[in-house]
Amino acid sequence: MDLTAALRAFARTIERGSMTGAADDLGVSQPAISKHLANLERHVQARLLERSPRHVRATSAGEALYEATRSGLAAIDAAMEGIRIETGAIEGSLRIHAQTCVGGKVIHPIVMGFQRDHPQVSVDLVLENRAIDLVYDNFDMAIRYSRPENQDVVIRRLGTVERLLCASPAFLDRVGGIARPEQLGDLPLITTAQVISPRKILTLVAGSEQHDIPVRPFIHTNDANVILNTLLDGHACGPIQTLFAREALKDGRLVRILPDYEVKSAEMVLAYPSVRFMRPVVRAFADRLVQDLRSVDGVACH
């Protein structure tokens, strides 16, 4: 029996809650996972898993074995990759989760630059706005605008994503200009959940004063490109991330409105599963990410 392979199959089955999920993550067949688990239970002479048609979970003995071995497996992976790095090459796989807006605009170019320097690195870049469990979904890291809740993760603050209130010149001509924050409550507004409260309050800050403006969203979306295209069309006004608006502001297709007021910024964080040692390729990309974000207009790095 290959004990390391059996323990790896066992740990991933615990984390995914199924042998099928473990097989998918490890790139082997489901019968191979089943064989590893049977051999491991025979080796330790204890029942490690409770199996049902829809779910697999650890017995008390299985939980104890998982807690005792998971860090050791991660250490083996890190050590093996570290030996390869001593030869001068960073290689291996990297699985990254990012929210759609920042992922396509910012993270994707950084990934390509990283791969140009390290061509032996393969990247699985998943862009979506759903909340994930980094361990269960098998990600090395996640770049998010909010901190994952109820997860055993390590958080690294990357910076804040700035937002501006913008509109097109045609929109401003149609509504007669916007001079006061209170006017936003009577205008077509496009918003996202990150900047408007569940009670439909848009908070603006001017110096030490905070202004809570009741608004009626004309369009509510989670897609930054939808916001940009809606503003460019003159269909509505609203807050948009600076990194999406900068080109349109530069050539005059968009105009900043209420420039004395700031929109709540979003905190960008990098999250790692704390149950794993950080592999060298993960650490190298994280360092590259922090470095490259400093040159992104619209992201204020810490």
Descriptive overview:
The protein has helices at residues 3-16, 19-26, 30-44, 60-85, 100-117, 169-175, 224-232, 242-250, 280-293, and strands at 49-51, 56-58, 92-98, 121-127, 141-144, 153-161, 163-167, 189-191, 201-206, 209-214, 217-220, 238-241, 255-256, 262-263, 266-273, 299-301. With 302 residues, the chain is an alpha+beta fold. It folds into three domains: 3-85, Orthogonal Bundle (Arc Repressor Mutant, subunit A), CATH 1.10.10.10; 92-159 and 267-301, D-Maltodextrin-Binding Protein, domain 2; 163-264, D-Maltodextrin-Binding Protein, domain 2, CATH 3.40.190. The chain has a six-stranded mixed β-sheet with strand order 4-3-5-15-6-16, covered by helices on one side. A three-stranded antiparallel β-sheet has the order 12-7-13. The chain has a three-stranded antiparallel β-sheet with strand order 10-9-14, with no helix packed on it. β1 and β2 form a beta hairpin. α1 crosses α3 (30-44), α1 (3-16) crosses α4 (60-85) and α5 (100-117) crosses α9. It is elongated, with a radius of gyration of 24 Å. It starts with a helix and ends with a strand. The mean pLDDT is 84.
The CATH superfamily title of the largest domain:
Periplasmic binding protein-like II
State the separation between the terminal residues, measured CA to CA. 49 Å
β-strand amount: 25-35%
What CATH calls the topology of the largest domain is D-Maltodextrin-Binding Protein, domain 2
Main-sheet strand order equals 4-3-5-15-6-16
Global Rg: 24 Å
What is the average of the pLDDT values?
84
**Largest pleated sheet:** 6 strands, mixed
- Overall shape: elongated
Label the structural class: alpha+beta
Report low-confidence residues grouped into runs of 5 or more: none
Helix % is: 25-40%
Task: Give the count of helical stretches.
Answer: 9
Number of domains: 3
| CATH-defined architecture of the largest domain | 3-Layer(aba) Sandwich
Q: What top-tier CATH class of the largest domain fits best?
A: Alpha Beta
- Series of H and E elements: HHHEEHEHEEEEHEEEEHEHEEEHE
Counting copies of identical and different chains, the oligomeric state is: single chain
Total count of strands: 16
